[in-house]
Amino acid sequence: MTAAFATLLGRTPGPDDDFFVLGGHSLVAVQLAERLRTGLALPLTGLDVMEHRTPRAIAALLDTREAERERLAASLPTARTRQPREGTVLVTGGTGGVGAFVLRELAARGRSVLALSRPESAHLVAGEGVEVVEGDLTDLDGLRAAVGRADAVIHAACTFTRPEVDVAAMAAMVEAWNRGPFVFVSSVDAYGRPAGPRVAEEAPSERPLSAYGQAKLDCERLLMRAAGTEGRGGASVVRSPIVWGPHDRLRDQLRWGATGLLYQAALAGEPIDLPRPGTAEHAWYGAPWVHAAALARAVGDCLENPVHGVANAVSGHVAWPELADELTRLLGSDSEIALVDRVHPDLDHRWHYASGRLATALDERPGEDWRSVLAAMTGDARR
User: Fold this and answer.
1) 126 and 231 assigned to the same domain
2) DSSP assigned state of 127
3) Which range (34-38, 95-99, 229-233, 372-376) has the least confidence?
4) What is the mean predicted confidence (pLDDT) over 120-138?
């Protein structure tokens, strides 16, 4: 681990030297995890590096995961030799924030599940009614085999940083898909940057698209071209914005993802500059969001009633000043918030997305308002 730090950071650390103090940042964390994952088959993500930060802490995390993997290897049946029950749903991404809520929703509906997972993460998805299938998005043969065993598919996994892997995985899954419905959890990033402030469901994508958004769009097209052919069922593309919910992965995204600029500034008590409404001739800047439980309900409904196209899953929209005010309050921050006549690239979002097709599933339930879910996500911020 020390050698891997040294290769990417140019400095040889001690066992307890901090990744960020050594000059690391989020992109280097992803590169470090990728190097260790592909070169040594070590189960790490960039978020793991950012959370554990020292060579000793990361090595301890790996030891824990290896012990868990060995325990599970002795206790779990061999997934590929078992016959799944009729109506079984294959779920990818079950170890992530969205996938975890999808698994809970399927359990509540009494559905049998095949959950795709790496061996070291199997304990995160194993449970009553869930059969673990070993694999990941780079294991194309494993993906094909898993899809072939299922009566329905929910594809919620994503690399976030390797679009070519995401597209190749979708192509392999669609190739093996031969029956039942297929639900793909996509992103509003697939719309690109529309000219107007309001975006209808299935509105055309407008350039420029990010690499992430383009990969989502490419995956959607692969799926929709195959839907309804050669025995395949209906397809549903569920485009979601930022997902909020009480789950470690979703907390990581709040802290380091699209809202990371605001979160980290509030946590550090630093000034927060936000674009004034009307800047660059746009009346509103802020974030669309969806509660993870509402998204899971929408995905579950699509299994039973495919939308045969694109639907948006959006719980609401919150302006940057409202979000910054709430974050500073929740984090006990003394950050000063100012409205300025410029737009930081991370805050250049000014679209509202319609979400009528899945409105019933998205209806707000107790505790699903944006303030409540943020409170649940930030409660351990200073630990």
Assistant:
1) yes
2) B
3) 34-38
4) 84
In whole angstroms, what is the distance from residue 155 CA to residue 185 CA? 6
Among residues 320, 318, 335, 299, the alpha carbon closest in space to that of 371 is found at: 318
Same domain, 69 and 105: no
Q: How far apart are CA 18 and CA 53, in angstroms?
A: 5
The average confidence (pLDDT) of the chain is 91
Q: Provide the 10 A C-beta neighbour count for residue 247.
A: 19
Alpha carbons 333 and 324: distance in angstroms, whole number: 10
- The average pLDDT across 33-58 equals 84
Range of the domain at 19: 2-75
38: domain CATH number is 1.10.1200.10
Tokens linked to 377? 């996500």
Asked whether residue 88 falls in the same domain as residue 233, the answer is: yes
**pTM score, two decimals?**
0.83
The dihedrals phi and psi of 205, each to the nearest 5 degrees, come to -75, 145
Q: What is the mean pLDDT of residues 172-185?
A: 97
Q: Are 361 and 301 in contact (CB under 8 A)?
A: yes
335 contacts 265 by C-beta, under 8 angstroms = yes
Structural contact between residues 272 and 77, judged by C-beta atoms closer than 8 angstroms: no
The structural domain count of the chain equals 2
Beta bridge partners of 244: 291
